[in-house]
Inverse folding.
């Protein structure tokens, strides 16, 4: 209990909402796993009606996967979870006060669209202006991994895109939540470059392991290409075709109600991942020799677990966003440890309780810190053969290229509430290995540092508010603010860090 936690804090650690799996029909059902612990609840709601890429052993029956009754042997089932929703929230007094929208001083609207983009538009089947392309022939997703870009020598494509992307998105009616996420993703360099691949259609997964059969990715790429090649002088693009498509994938986004930007991000990444998943056939159920694995070195187990994940979830999207999280459950009586590994797509990190200000580093440490599992929620220890008080702890086993940090400002406890805690965060050089007990002991190689390149900001209350995005251009490194159809240059970096920050996008320093 040493990692910078507020002594008065009572945490509710929850693994809520992994990247949800959406049924082709409509509903999202939830399989819930609960790890009840003393005053803390750890729940995993796997909002999936089917596994992501096919039926994997244990994929739809994970009620016993974790610590509820038994310490060991969670690896096999936990592999199924592609996204972590390893979120830790806390019970706290929530601030319901209204946060007013910052009266930003506008530095001047951006009008940098280059005239010659249209001439150089690609004509490779992805029509930047068409919204559907149903005649595209189904092709197999490529097995190769996405090209790593060398930032030192810009490719012709990078040179071509250098002045693009400063395009506003029309608000279709309460769609600022989606627009702010789209702008952050639009400025995610590896994803942007992927969307411009000449042979993108060859990556599309039209098999049964994708609900949308490539349509979502195709629509997304069309939108991004429009945003990066728009040169009509207005630099505003309508995302309506894309919105309709994501509404087909996740019907909850069909209407025009205000939604949560982090939730739409999850659906979006899930859908795009499926659409370019290299796994196009359900793998056979895997038998895991847990006893043998327990004898392996931890780093070998982690690698094996990762490879097992890739048998199901392996795409250009997971190449970019997925990392690996280690979970350690330790019996306080016999010190027996049960270790499991999970793929994560973002980290939902809690804000410290009863503090008006914090830092993202503190929030990450809070997420990773040990928590007690006690009281009537003690897990069963396999060695003691009885319920024991245990500690549970997360740490990072593998760092993603793009690290998405979701600040858990919203809580459903006692009605929907929002925390307006000011959270400071570094724009450059977020150092994970400077933090206490955040990296796994068996982490291999140098720990990367991360630079911020996107923020989804929410201003307002839990019930009404507005989203904007602030993003660093992937080629010019200039910051801009995207407020629906308006784009502003953001020369004053002090405006980047505010209590409106909600989802942070960090890129690994190469
Ligand atoms: Zn024990």
């Amino acid at each position: 209990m040493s990692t910078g936690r507020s002594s008065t804090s009572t945490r509710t650690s929850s693994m809520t909402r992994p990247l949800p799996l959406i049924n082709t029909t409509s509903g999202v059902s939830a399989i819930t796993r609960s790890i009840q612990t003393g005053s803390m609840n750890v729940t995993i709601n796997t909002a999936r009606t089917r596994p992501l890429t096919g039926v994997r052993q244990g994929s739809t029956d994970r009620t016993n996967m974790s610590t509820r009754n038994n310490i060991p042997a969670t690896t096999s089932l936990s592999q199924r979870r592609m996204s972590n929703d390893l979120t830790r929230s806390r019970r706290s007094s929530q601030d319901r006060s209204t946060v007013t929208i910052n009266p930003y001083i506008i530095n001047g609207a951006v009008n940098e669209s280059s005239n010659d983009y249209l001439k150089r538009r690609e004509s490779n089947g992805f029509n930047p202006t068409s919204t559907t392309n149903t005649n595209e022939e189904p092709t197999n997703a490529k097995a190769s991994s996405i090209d790593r870009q060398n930032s030192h020598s810009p490719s012709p494509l990078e040179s071509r895109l250098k002045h693009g992307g400063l395009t506003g998105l029309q608000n279709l009616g309460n769609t600022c939540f989606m627009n702010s996420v789209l702008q952050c993703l639009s400025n995610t360099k590896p994803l942007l470059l992927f969307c411009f691949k000449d042979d993108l259609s060859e990556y599309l997964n039209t098999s049964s392991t994708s609900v949308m059969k490539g349509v979502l990715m195709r629509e997304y790429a069309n939108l991004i290409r429009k945003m990066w090649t728009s040169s009509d002088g207005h630099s505003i693009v309508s995302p309506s075709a894309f919105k309709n498509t994501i509404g087909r994938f996740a019907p909850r986004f069909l209407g025009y109600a205000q939604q949560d930007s982090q939730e739409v991000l999850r659906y979006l990444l899930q859908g795009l991942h499926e659409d370019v998943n290299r796994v196009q056939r359900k793998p056979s159920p895997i038998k895991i020799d847990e006893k043998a694995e327990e004898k392996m070195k931890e780093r070998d187990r982690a690698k094996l677990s990762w490879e097992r994940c890739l048998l199901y979830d392996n795409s250009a999207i997971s190449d970019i966003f997925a990392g690996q999280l280690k979970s350690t459950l330790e019996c306080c009586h016999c010190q027996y440890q049960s270790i499991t590994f999970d793929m994560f797509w973002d980290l939902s990190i809690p804000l410290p309780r009863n503090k008006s200000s914090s830092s993202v580093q503190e929030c990450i440490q809070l997420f990773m810190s040990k928590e007690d599992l006690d009281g009537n929620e003690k897990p069963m220890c396999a060695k003691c053969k009885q319920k024991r008080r245990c500690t549970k702890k997360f740490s990072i086993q593998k760092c993603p290229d793009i690290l998405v940090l979701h600040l858990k400002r919203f809580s459903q406890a006692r009605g929907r509430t929002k925390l307006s805690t000011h959270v400071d965060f570094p724009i450059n050089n977020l150092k994970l290995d400077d933090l206490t007990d955040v990296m796994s002991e068996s982490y291999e190689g140098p720990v990367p540092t991360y630079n911020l390149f996107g923020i989804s900001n929410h201003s307002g209350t839990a019930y009404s508010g507005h989203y904007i995005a602030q993003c660093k251009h992937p080629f010019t490194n200039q910051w801009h603010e995207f407020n629906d159809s308006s784009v502003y240059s953001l020369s004053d970096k002090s405006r980047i860090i505010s209590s409106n920050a909600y989802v942070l996008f960090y890129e690994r320093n190469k």
Observations:
- The CA atoms of residues 402 and 507 lie 5 Å apart.
